[in-house]
Amino acid sequence: MKRLKTYLFALLPLAFITFSCDEEDILVQEQLDNNPLPGAETGDGGVLDLSNYISLGNSITAGFMDNALYTNGQNHSFPNLLATQFAIQGVGGGSFNQPDINSANGFSGVSGTNILGRYELSLAQQRPVPTVGEAIGDFSGNKSELNNFGVPGMKITDATNPGFANPYYLRFASNPGTSTVLGDALSTTPTFFSYWLGNNDILGYAVAGGVDESSITSQPNFQSALEQSLGALVQSGAEGVVMTLPPFVLLPYFRAVPYNAIPMDDQAVVDQLNDGFDGLNRALDGLVQLSALVPTLNVTQAEADARKVEYALGANPILMEDDALVDYDRPGGEFDMLLAFNQINAAERQALAPYGQSRPATAQDLPVLTSATVLGTPVGGSATALVGITVPAYDNLILSVSEFETVVGMTATYNATIAGVVAGINAQANGSITLVDVQPAFADLFGLTPAEATALFDPSNGTNPALAAFAAAAQERADGTDADPNPGLGINIEGHNLQPDFRPNGIFSTDGIHPNPRGHAIIANLIIEALNNQKGADIPMVNVTALRGILARDF
Question: Domain 53-255+401-447+488-553's class?
Answer without folding.
Answer: alpha beta
